[in-house]
C-alpha cells in the first residue's frame, strides 16, 4: 500500500506541474495577444488624421447642397493623405467649394479653392489647391471601386493637395496611379445624384453643386 501511495503522490505531483505549465502558457499567450491588439489601434481621442477609434479609422461627414455623405478614412494605409485631408477639413478649407468636375458613370471631383462660392474664373476651375502637397501613397488592398475616395493630382505623382474625387464606378484603370484614402459608407445615392447633374463641355456643372462643409468625426 505504501508503494501505491508513493506512485499516486508522484503522479499527482506530475499532474500538478502539467497544470501549472499549461496555465503559464495560457497567460503568456494572452499577454502576447493583448500586446498585438494594442499595436493595431490608437487612442480614440486622436483627431489629427491618425486612427481615431478602436477600428483604426477616421470618419468625415460631407455635407453638400444635394445631401450628406458619411465617409470612412484610412490613416493606416494613407497616413499623409488622410492627415492633410483632416487638417484642411478642420480649417474650413472645403467649405462652399463646387463639385467642379462631374463625369457621369466615372467620378465627381471637388477641392479646388478657385471654385469657392461658385465664383472666380471658370477656366481656372480644377487648377487650384492648398499650399501643401502629399506624396503618392499606394495600398494594394485599396482600389478605385464604387464609392472610394481618391486624391487628385497633376502629372507629378507626388502632387496631391486638396482636390479629391469619389468613384461612381469600378475604375480599375486608376489603381496604382492615385492615392485611395477613404470610402463612402452612407449617402452614396447623393454622390450618384451629383453625377447625374447636367454639365458643360468642360464637365463643369451647369447648376452648381457645392460642398457646404466637411466635418471630421471619431464615429460615423
Give the structure's gist in a few sentences:
By secondary structure, this protein is α+β, with helices and mostly antiparallel strands. 27% of the residues lie in helices and 21% in strands. It has 2 domains: 1-39; 58-217, Cyclophilin (Beta Barrel), CATH 2.40.100.
Task: Report on this structure.
The structure is a single chain. A 9-stranded antiparallel β-sheet has the order 3-9-1-2-8-6-7-5-4. The protein is 27% helix and 21% strand. The chain folds into 2 domains: 1-39; 58-217, Beta Barrel (Cyclophilin). The longest helix is centred in the first third of the chain and has 38 residues, at 2-39. With 220 residues, the chain is of the alpha+beta class. The model is unreliable at 1-10 and 25-47 (pLDDT under 50). It has 3 helices and 9 strands.
Amino acid at each position: 500500500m505504501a508503494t501505491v501511495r508513493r506512485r499516486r503522490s508522484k503522479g499527482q505531483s506530475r499532474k500538478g506541474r502539467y497544470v501549472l505549465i499549461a496555465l503559464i502558457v495560457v497567460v503568456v499567450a494572452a499577454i502576447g495577444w493583448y500586446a498585438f491588439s494594442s499595436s493595431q489601434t490608437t487612442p480614440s481621442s486622436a483627431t489629427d488624421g491618425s486612427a481615431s477609434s478602436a477600428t483604426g479609422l477616421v470618419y468625415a461627414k460631407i455635407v453638400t447642397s444635394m445631401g450628406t455623405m458619411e465617409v470612412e478614412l484610412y490613416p493606416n494605409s494613407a497616413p499623409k493623405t488622410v492627415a492633410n485631408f483632416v487638417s484642411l477639413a478642420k480649417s474650413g478649407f472645403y467649405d462652399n467649394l463646387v463639385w467642379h468636375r462631374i463625369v457621369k458613370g466615372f467620378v465627381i471631383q471637388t477641392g479646388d479653392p478657385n471654385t469657392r462660392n461658385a465664383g472666380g474664373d471658370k477656366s481656372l476651375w480644377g487648377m487650384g489647391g492648398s499650399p501643401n502637397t502629399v506624396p503618392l501613397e499606394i495600398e494594394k488592398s485599396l482600389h478605385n471601386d464604387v464609392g472610394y475616395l481618391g486624391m487628385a493630382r497633376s502629372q507629378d505623382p507626388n502632387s496631391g493637395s486638396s482636390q479629391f474625387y469619389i468613384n461612381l464606378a469600378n475604375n480599375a484603370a486608376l489603381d496604382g496611379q492615385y492615392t485611395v484614402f477613404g470610402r463612402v459608407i452612407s449617402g452614396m445615392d447623393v454622390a450618384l445624384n451629383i453625377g447625374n447633374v447636367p454639365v458643360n463641355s468642360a464637365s463643369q456643372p451647369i447648376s452648381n453643386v457645392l460642398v457646404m462643409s466637411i466635418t471630421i468625426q471619431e464615429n460615423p
